[in-house]
Protein: Enoyl-CoA hydratase/isomerase family protein
Organism: Gordonia jinghuaiqii
Amino acid sequence: MTVDASTETDRPPLVRADHDGPVTTVTLANPDLANALTYGAMKQFIDALRSAHTQGSLLLVVRAEGDDFCIGRDQKEKVPGVTKAQSLGLILEANTALRDFPGVSVCVIRGRAFGFGSGVAVQSDLTIAADTATLGFDEVRHGLAPLVVAEYLPELIGPRAASDLVYTGREVSAREALSIGLVSRVVAEAELDAEAQRLVDGLVNTEPGALRLLKSYSTRLRAGAITNPRSSAVAELDAWLTAGRPEYPSPPSG
């Protein structure tokens, strides 16, 4: 499918960002294509993620319209004037925007979440899935080498489980996804929306500074930016408490 990128702005949004107090909800809104992400939709998705940061949101909720969360990138799309490197670069931008969100990200999965869709699921801080959901990194089945996935997935679910998924491209059930760490919780499909809302409400009622401090510390710890985790944990918690539990904790000095 060939798409003129200049006309994307004339069409209904494929990704929406709704801001409601401390919560930004990003919704994939192309259910007729199982929320496969075109070049234009990827750019909208990145903008939506960044808007949550700009708004100072405490929570970022990523969900989708229709029966499927996201079956990945649109592999048939060709955009005139856009190179493969530029198109693939959007994946890195989206991953960075999601993982660098300074609040708590929550992903809600119904139906299929393949390729980039599973990437969003596993890179969110918390992911709740319907018991009928299926996930997987199916790039090899489309003749592609999932090198971007191979960079981050072993860190998140372990090298053995990651190798199994990326080399075979197989689909896993929600229950198996839970057992290997792709998702955080699995609930009955009929209860998914209600359980997701309960999760969000509980987080909203948590002290915001505590969540932001925890997210900041966890992100820096994973990035190897904290040389002495135990002493840093005590020092940063003490500094935050001494400062009166600010909603937006100051970054550590030095």
Q: What stands out?
A: The longest strand covers residues 15-20.
